[in-house]
């Protein structure tokens, strides 16, 4: 692997290699001194042209845990604001001898575009509504830690599927791993063509919850819609909010709740569910650092020294 552009571009073997490497990175993160010299001399540029709390900071922490040098570039503090193109910006960053470029951008396939034009490795940290591969990989690691073998598991993904890069990457990942997937949401946010992924579709929340081992909840992406996909937030809450009452009524006793964040509390997920015993949400965030350490390490091409 030279780049990580999407789950579509990688094999099950690649995924397993990343997950196994992430498991060994977790040992580093559990040490008193949570840092290894493995990537000394490697430089990573984090270009985030959309807001981020989890992805940006877990990449940054992952890079620092591996002793890589890092530089952060946001749209508002770059010369893109003065009219420079994305490619010119990245080529100039690369001219400073950067080895790996992590990019989050609102335009789908922008990481692919860059990967064909620069020599540095490119990691997709979310490209519009297209893919968010590192999120899917940290989700898979969190699921494996909880359930072991994922084959035959019943997972539902509930919410704004249409605008969700997380949903696309997660569907592609879980299909490779033999998971049975049900998508659930209002028909305007869940087009029928998603059936082409080989998943079940329901517009009924009860069907999205009954018999599921994992209920993966997505937020309504207000920034990617113009208000015409749902009549009102209140109506969405009435029919699709995952609450304690709904779980008690329909869910398996040991159901696991996941969410990529940021959570819109009281909209797609009730606060007592987000914080309750079902929730794996903060474990997902913890695993994000290990998965990103694994990806940066594997793309760097540097052999692991004895530690
Ligand atoms: N899950 C996720 O991508 O969160 P951020 O937008 O905070 O990075």
TrEMBL record:
<dbReference type="GO" id="GO:0004070">
    <property type="term" value="F:aspartate carbamoyltransferase activity"/>
</dbReference>
<feature type="binding site">
    <location>
        <position position="219"/>
    </location>
    <ligand>
        <name>L-aspartate</name>
    </ligand>
</feature>
<dbReference type="InterPro" id="IPR006130">
    <property type="entry name" value="Asp/Orn_carbamoylTrfase"/>
</dbReference>
<dbReference type="GO" id="GO:0016597">
    <property type="term" value="F:amino acid binding"/>
</dbReference>
<dbReference type="Pfam" id="PF02729">
    <property type="entry name" value="OTCace_N"/>
</dbReference>
<feature type="binding site">
    <location>
        <position position="104"/>
    </location>
    <ligand>
        <name>carbamoyl phosphate</name>
    </ligand>
</feature>
<feature type="binding site">
    <location>
        <position position="165"/>
    </location>
    <ligand>
        <name>L-aspartate</name>
    </ligand>
</feature>
<feature type="binding site">
    <location>
        <position position="135"/>
    </location>
    <ligand>
        <name>carbamoyl phosphate</name>
    </ligand>
</feature>
<dbReference type="Pfam" id="PF00185">
    <property type="entry name" value="OTCace"/>
</dbReference>
<comment type="function">
    <text>Catalyzes the condensation of carbamoyl phosphate and aspartate to form carbamoyl aspartate and inorganic phosphate, the committed step in the de novo pyrimidine nucleotide biosynthesis pathway.</text>
</comment>
<comment type="pathway">
    <text>Pyrimidine metabolism; UMP biosynthesis via de novo pathway; (S)-dihydroorotate from bicarbonate: step 2/3.</text>
</comment>
<feature type="binding site">
    <location>
        <position position="261"/>
    </location>
    <ligand>
        <name>carbamoyl phosphate</name>
    </ligand>
</feature>
<protein>
    <recommendedName>
        <fullName>Aspartate carbamoyltransferase</fullName>
        <ecNumber>2.1.3.2</ecNumber>
    </recommendedName>
</protein>
<comment type="subunit">
    <text>Heterododecamer (2C3:3R2) of six catalytic PyrB chains organized as two trimers (C3), and six regulatory PyrI chains organized as three dimers (R2).</text>
</comment>
<feature type="binding site">
    <location>
        <position position="54"/>
    </location>
    <ligand>
        <name>carbamoyl phosphate</name>
    </ligand>
</feature>
<feature type="binding site">
    <location>
        <position position="55"/>
    </location>
    <ligand>
        <name>carbamoyl phosphate</name>
    </ligand>
</feature>
<dbReference type="InterPro" id="IPR036901">
    <property type="entry name" value="Asp/Orn_carbamoylTrfase_sf"/>
</dbReference>
<dbReference type="InterPro" id="IPR006132">
    <property type="entry name" value="Asp/Orn_carbamoyltranf_P-bd"/>
</dbReference>
<dbReference type="GO" id="GO:0005829">
    <property type="term" value="C:cytosol"/>
</dbReference>
<dbReference type="GO" id="GO:0006520">
    <property type="term" value="P:amino acid metabolic process"/>
</dbReference>
<comment type="similarity">
    <text>Belongs to the aspartate/ornithine carbamoyltransferase superfamily. ATCase family.</text>
</comment>
<keyword id="KW-0808">Transferase</keyword>
<feature type="binding site">
    <location>
        <position position="132"/>
    </location>
    <ligand>
        <name>carbamoyl phosphate</name>
    </ligand>
</feature>
<feature type="binding site">
    <location>
        <position position="82"/>
    </location>
    <ligand>
        <name>L-aspartate</name>
    </ligand>
</feature>
<feature type="domain" description="Aspartate/ornithine carbamoyltransferase carbamoyl-P binding">
    <location>
        <begin position="2"/>
        <end position="145"/>
    </location>
</feature>
<feature type="domain" description="Aspartate/ornithine carbamoyltransferase Asp/Orn-binding">
    <location>
        <begin position="152"/>
        <end position="298"/>
    </location>
</feature>
<dbReference type="GO" id="GO:0006207">
    <property type="term" value="P:'de novo' pyrimidine nucleobase biosynthetic process"/>
</dbReference>
<dbReference type="InterPro" id="IPR006131">
    <property type="entry name" value="Asp_carbamoyltransf_Asp/Orn-bd"/>
</dbReference>
<keyword id="KW-0665">Pyrimidine biosynthesis</keyword>
<dbReference type="GO" id="GO:0044205">
    <property type="term" value="P:'de novo' UMP biosynthetic process"/>
</dbReference>
<dbReference type="InterPro" id="IPR002082">
    <property type="entry name" value="Asp_carbamoyltransf"/>
</dbReference>
<feature type="binding site">
    <location>
        <position position="262"/>
    </location>
    <ligand>
        <name>carbamoyl phosphate</name>
    </ligand>
</feature>
């Amino acid at each position: 692997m030279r780049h990580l552009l999407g789950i579509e571009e990688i094999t099950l073997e690649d995924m397993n290699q990343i997950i196994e490497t992430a498991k060994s990175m977790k040992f580093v993160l559990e040490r008193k001194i949570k840092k290894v010299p493995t990537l000394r001399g490697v430089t990573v540029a984090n270009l985030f042209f959309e807001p981020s709390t989890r992805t940006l900071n877990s990449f940054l922490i992952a890079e620092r845990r591996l002793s890589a040098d890092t530089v952060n570039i946001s749209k508002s503090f770059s010369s893109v604001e003065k009219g420079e193109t994305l490619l010119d910006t990245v080529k100039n960053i690369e001219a400073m001898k950067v080895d790996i470029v992590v990019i989050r951008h609102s335009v789908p396939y922008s990481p692919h575009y860059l990967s064909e034009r620069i020599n540095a490795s490119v990691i997709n940290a979310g490209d519009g509504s297209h893919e968010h591969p590192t999120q899917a990989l940290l989700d898979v690691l969190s699921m494996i830690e909880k359930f072991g073998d994922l084959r035959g598991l019943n997972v539902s993904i509930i919410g704004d599927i249409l605008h969700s890069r997380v949903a696309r990457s997660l569907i592609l990942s879980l299909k490779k791993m033999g998971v049975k997937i049900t998508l659930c949401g209002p028909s305007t946010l869940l087009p029928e063509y998603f059936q082409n992924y080989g998943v079940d579709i329901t517009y009924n929340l009860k069907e999205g919850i009954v018999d599921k081992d994992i209920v993966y909840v997505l937020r309504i992406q207000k920034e990617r819609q113009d208000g015409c996909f749902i009549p009102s937030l209140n109506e969405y809450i009435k029919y699709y909010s995952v609450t304690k009452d709904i779980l008690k009524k329909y869910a398996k006793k040991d159901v696991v709740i996941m969410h990529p964040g940021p959570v819109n509390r009281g909209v797609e997920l009730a606060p007592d569910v987000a914080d309750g015993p079902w929730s794996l949400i903060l474990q997902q965030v913890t695993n994000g650092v290990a998965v990103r350490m694994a990806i940066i390490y594997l793309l760097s091409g540097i052999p692991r020294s004895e530690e």
